[in-house]
Amino acid sequence: MKAEEIAAAQGIPHKFLEGILGDLRRAGIVDSRRGGGGGYRLARDAADVTVADVIRAVDGPIVPVRGGRPTGLAYTGNAQPLLPTARYTDVNGRL
């Protein structure tokens, strides 16, 4: 799929998307082809791409929260809705 098509469908600037796609390409998540029939496609099966893979590709390594593993966290009060986000990945980057 062409980057221009993805950018238009998502309502984001083309240059911004090109930066993200470049990060994903360098991480081996997408492949790109130049030319009239070119564009971007997944480099591997979608089932083999985790949310953690994408986050690492775009934002860098995922680090422990407050020095501990996400599964050991306990938030209370107004911070409680943050817990599912902090626990989205295990040590191997799997959901």
From TrEMBL:
The name this protein goes by in its record: Rrf2 family transcriptional regulator
InterPro entries in UniProt: TR_Rrf2-type_CS, Tscrpt_reg_Rrf2, WH-like_DNA-bd_sf, WH_DNA-bd_sf
Keywords from the UniProt entry: DNA-binding
GO cellular component: cytosol
PROSITE patterns in the cross-refs: HTH_RRF2_1 (PS01332), HTH_RRF2_2 (PS51197)
Record's keyword annotation contains DNA-binding: yes
Keyword DNA-binding: yes
A molecular function (GO) term: DNA-binding transcription factor activity
Coiled coil start-end: none
